[in-house]
């Protein structure tokens, strides 16, 4: 008796049909994203199951939001998203190149060539292209004073593919200045030191860079100041409220007096911590008009808030953990985990601390700091869609500027590298390859042209005329850039 080992609903394909199905999946994904490429690319409208609408031309956002079913297309989408996470851009270009590579391969496979032979040619072409990239890239000196114009060009190139021109140009300065703000000599750039805060308020053009920090909460006492200048900042992780025991513990008392004595002892312990903070405030603020601000990661109970308010101290509780390191980098000083042995050396400084109320939300601005190494990009917009679009663009811009500063080199865009690499592969590398692997090198080289072709097509130019005009130049002559835009 025979056994059924296959799913009755499964489809069985021979190797040729399966291969063509995978190729068609890559080509289909390419066709969806093709019109996105470049500053002249079109915007896609995504409609969710609940009717929510999202407008974007960011390839990363599209690939994450699209419901992709084909396993090959899913793998390509994940590869492109990884490219965006690493470099901040290049999602659409990656999908286009993979799709074009499959399209070029299909021609030879239909003629009977084994895919393994093509892959051998692809590997040779890949290694040669990476070697050529080292010669082609333009070195950029990033010393103590980086070239801001180069960094602005990189940021502008990334941002203009995701936002309209005027907004992209405004964000260019913001992104570059944010990365330069957090940069430290001889240390890797940590983009998490850039806080991206948003307000659903006013218009997108009101987005700005705050050289300091914006906290999404305010003080919890009505008598505390809402605005203070020349402030000492104490960044702490100290509980200023009664702490419950970490284990199951019980207290037994015989009468009400014992209970009151126990409550008083608990209160006295918390009050002692508060008094030490007040003593430090009196020490540094006596004889001047300076103010004192406490930003605490843990809780502050109402009696402690009342003591601090009477002493003229502004106190914020439950600050987010991610902001504690940012506060120290922005304001100076150091974060303390205990109020014992507090000294003025642990205090930071801010020229201005004020609270902004928007509807039911409170925001605390810490600005005018000295030599900050952390900052906040405050994004504003009239709706959630605009804010999300700007957020995605800013994150990509930050990564692209960071990569430029770390690699200390740039590669010219607008298809310059792709055309030059294609010329190099065809004119020099292909001659050194023996046998059928030459065809794999040629297919790889032709696939590179998909980027300038698509840029020309999206710009309303004749694709063939542009490619012919570009390929007549030497791969080392970059003046053809003016032919595309």
UniProtKB/TrEMBL annotation:
GO terms for molecular function: ATP binding; ATP hydrolysis activity; ATP-dependent protein folding chaperone; unfolded protein binding. CDD domains: TCP1_zeta. Keywords: ATP-binding, Chaperone, Cytoplasm, Nucleotide-binding. Pfam families: Cpn60_TCP1 (PF00118). It comes from the Eukaryota. It is found in: Cytoplasm. GO terms for cellular component: cytoplasm. The keyword Transcription does not apply. Belongs to the TCP-1 chaperonin family. NCBIfam families: chap_CCT_zeta. This is Uncharacterized protein.
């Amino acid at each position: 008796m025979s056994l059924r080992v296959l799913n009755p609903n499964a489809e069985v394909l021979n190797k040729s049909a399966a291969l063509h199905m995978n190729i068609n999946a890559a080509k289909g994904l390419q066709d969806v994203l093709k019109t996105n490429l470049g500053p002249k690319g079109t915007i896609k409208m995504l409609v969710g199951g609940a009717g929510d609408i999202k407008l974007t031309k960011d390839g990363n956002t599209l690939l994450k939001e699209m419901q992709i079913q084909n396993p090959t297309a899913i793998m390509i989408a994940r590869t492109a998203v990884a490219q965006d996470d690493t470099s901040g851009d290049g999602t659409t270009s990656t999908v286009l190149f993979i799709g074009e590579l499959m399209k070029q391969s299909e021609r030879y496979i239909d003629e009977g060539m084994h895919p393994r032979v093509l892959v051998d040619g692809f590997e040779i072409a890949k290694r040669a292209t990476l070697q050529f990239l080292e010669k082609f890239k333009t070195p950029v000196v990033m010393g103590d004073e980086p070239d801001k114009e180069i960094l602005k060009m990189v940021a502008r190139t990334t941002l203009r593919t995701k936002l309209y021109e005027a907004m992209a140009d405004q964000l260019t300065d913001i992104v570059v200045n944010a990365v330069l703000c957090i940069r430290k000599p001889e240390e890797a750039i940590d983009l998490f030191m850039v806080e991206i805060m948003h307000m659903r308020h006013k218009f997108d053009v009101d987005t700005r860079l705050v050289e300091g920090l914006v906290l999404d909460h305010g003080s919890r006492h009505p008598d505390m100041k809402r605005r203070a200048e020349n402030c000492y900042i104490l960044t702490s992780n100290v509980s200023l409220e009664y702490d419950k025991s970490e284990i199951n513990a019980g207290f037994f008392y015989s009468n009400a007096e014992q209970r009151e004595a126990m409550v008083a002892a608990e209160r006295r312990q918390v009050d002692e911590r508060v008094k030490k903070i007040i003593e430090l405030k009196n020490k540094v603020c006596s004889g001047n008009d300076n103010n004192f601000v406490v930003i605490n990661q843990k809780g502050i109970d109402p009696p402690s808030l009342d003591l601090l308010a009477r002493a003229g101290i502004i106190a914020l509780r439950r600050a987010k953990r991610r902001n504690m390191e940012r506060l120290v980098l922005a304001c100076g000083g150091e974060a303390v985990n205990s109020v014992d042995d507090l000294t003025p050396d642990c205090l930071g400084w801010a020229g201005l601390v004020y609270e902004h109320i928007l509807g039911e939300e409170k925001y605390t601005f810490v600005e005018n700091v000295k030599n900050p190494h952390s900052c906040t990009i405050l994004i504003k917009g009239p709706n959630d869609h605009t804010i999300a679009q700007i957020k995605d663009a800013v994150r990509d811009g930050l990564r692209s500027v960071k990569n430029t500063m770390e690699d200390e080199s740039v590669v010219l865009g607008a298809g310059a590298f792709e055309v030059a690499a294609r010329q190099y592969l065809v004119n020099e590398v292909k001659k050194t390859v023996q046998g059928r692997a030459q065809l794999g090198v040629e297919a790889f080289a032709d696939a590179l042209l998909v980027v300038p072709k698509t840029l020309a097509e999206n710009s309303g130019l004749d694709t063939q005329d542009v490619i012919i005009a570009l390929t007549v130049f030497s791969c080392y002559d970059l003046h053809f850039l003016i032919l595309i835009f």
